[in-house]
Amino acid sequence: MDNRPIGVFDSGLGGLTVLKEIKNLLPRESIVYFGDSGRAPYGSKSKETVVKYTFQDIRFLLNQDIKMIVIACNTASACSLDQVKHSFDIPIVEVVGPGAATAVRETVNKKIGVIGTVATVTSGVYEKAILRLDPEVEIYQKACPLFVPLVEEAGGKMILP
User: Which residues form the signal peptide (predicted)?
Assistant: First the structure.
């Protein structure tokens, strides 16, 4: 049994919802969470900058002697997942695949709306992931650059009607 913690990072506080789910699913696991709120949001940055930040975040967590990485940031996942998976010898998981799977499973009309940062939406990562699971789904995407700061200001908690 590997008692080392799981490393989780996001560009701010939004990843705390991912952290909460990990704790619910794996209550005995130790977790090191890194919220890079000093450089948030990542979604308004260039792809190169997001990749650089992602590598720095992972290196920081590796210094904490973790056993795996969870990228809880959609933008970091969209911009750098392929690069980091090939650069680090540690399991790395992200939130796009599970998010897409949940959306496909929950839609009742085969229509899915995706809101996110400019970088996440323009990457097309959710569209590709969703269509891979169900090519018949209609996808509507909208970049909402002010949404992330709004959520961060609310402490990661938003209640929508």
Answer: none
